[in-house]
């Protein structure tokens, strides 16, 4: 949906996605190293633009670009969607290869959800094969809730997903730990700027 | 520090951070190790820097996709 929820972090910020992001979204999401874990990715910039037009009309759907504060470069994208009362899902998370924005962007999306959007629970649904991201959510403090059998079809193959949940109360203890890692990653990211 | 010593230190860090048995001579690729997620990666970089007394550039950090590339990067830093 069209929204104006922005959040600045340490080295990165969340800003609302704009039509001008369509090409970058397609480029990142169709990268072969990621696309095997991602469903429903428009195949062209034109198709992505049509998807964004529908997204702008959809309530309860917040899509952001992750941007470097230092130079405005786009690091990736993520979103909170399917808002249902005080619950929602977060995902559509993709970052440029070797990005140092993972911890901070995850921290920012939780801050946006629990802070600016007033949510009480955020879930993630990650394909079981995407083991590094499943592990990431667990290390962030999310609680694994269940396995969703046949959650997604990519090509002709059905995939299970792991559903994990972060509640506002868990975030009170998990958030500072993730923020600490984000600060260390931000220090690494700033080296090239400082240099 | 010669390459064997660098490799030993890198694997010591990887074992500690990833909580996995690793040993020099058995290269690890980040893509093959689920425990080597984005959070672990940051810990590994700092721990290797501290252990080897080097500091990587962001460009080098972006290229660290496994134990061998970390050993190479440390060696380049030590030789510089």
Task: Show the helix and strand layout.
The complex is a heterodimer of chains A (195) and B (80).
Chain A: E1 7-8, E2 12-16, H1 22-29, H2 32-35, H3 45-57, E3 62-68, E4 74-84, E5 87-95, H4 102-116, E6 121-127, H5 131-139, E7 143-154, E8 157-167, H6 168-194
Parallel strand pairs in A: 5-6
Antiparallel strand pairs in A: 1-2, 2-3, 3-4, 4-5, 6-8, 7-8
Helix pairs in contact in A: 1-3, 4-6
Chain B: H1 3-18, H2 38-52, H3 58-63, H4 67-79
Helix pairs in contact in B: 1-2, 1-4
Task: Write up this protein.
The complex is a heterodimer of chains A (195) and B (80). Chain A is an alpha+beta fold and 195 residues long. Chain A has a single domain, classed as 3-Layer(aba) Sandwich (Aminopeptidase). Chain A is built from six helices and eight strands; from the N terminus they run ββαααβββαβαββα. In chain A, strand 7 and strand 8 form a beta hairpin. In chain A, helix 1 crosses helix 3 and helix 4 crosses helix 6. The radius of gyration of chain A is 16 Å and the shape is globular. Chain A starts with 6 loop residues before the first strand and ends with a helix. Chain B is mainly α. Chain B has a single domain, classed as ACP-like (Non-ribosomal Peptide Synthetase Peptidyl Carrier Protein, Chain A). Chain B is 62% helix and 0% strand. In chain B, helix 1 packs antiparallel against helix 2 and helix 1 packs across helix 4. Chain B is globular, with a radius of gyration of 11 Å. The model of chain B has no long low-confidence stretch (mean pLDDT 92). The chains are: A alpha+beta (195), B mainly alpha (80). The interface between A and B is medium-sized, with 23 and 22 residues.
């Amino acid at each position: 949906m069209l929204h104006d929820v922005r959040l600045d972090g340490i080295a990165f910020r969340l800003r609302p996605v704009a039509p001008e992001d369509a090409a970058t979204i397609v480029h990142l999401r169709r990268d072969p190293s990621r696309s095997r874990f991602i469903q429903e990715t428009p195949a062209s910039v034109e198709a992505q633009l049509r998807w964004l037009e529908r997204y702008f009309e959809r309530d309860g759907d917040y899509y952001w670009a992750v941007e470097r504060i230092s130079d405005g470069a786009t690091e990736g994208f993520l979103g909170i969607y399917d808002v249902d009362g005080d619950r929602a899902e977060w995902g559509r998370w993709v970052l440029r290869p070797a990005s140092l924005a993972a911890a901070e962007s995850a921290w920012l999306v939780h801050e946006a959800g629990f802070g600016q959007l007033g949510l009480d629970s955020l879930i993630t649904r990650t394909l079981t094969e995407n083991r590094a991201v499943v592990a990431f959510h667990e290390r962030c403090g999310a609680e694994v809730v269940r396995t969703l059998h046949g959650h997604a079809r990519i090509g002709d193959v059905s995939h299970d997903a792991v559903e994990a949940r972060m509640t506002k109360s868990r975030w009170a203890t998990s958030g500072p730990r993730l923020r600490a890692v984000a600060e260390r990653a931000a220090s690494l990211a700033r080296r090239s700027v400082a240099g | 520090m010669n390459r064997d010593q660098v490799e030993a230190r890198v694997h010591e860090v990887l074992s500690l951070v990833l909580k996995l048995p690793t040993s020099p001579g058995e290269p690890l690729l980040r893509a093959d190790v689920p425990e080597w997620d984005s959070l672990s990666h940051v810990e590994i970089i700092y721990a290797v820097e501290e252990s080897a007394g080097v500091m990587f550039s962001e460009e080098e950090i972006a290229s660290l996709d496994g134990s061998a590339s970390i050993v190479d990067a440390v060696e380049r830093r030590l030789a510089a």
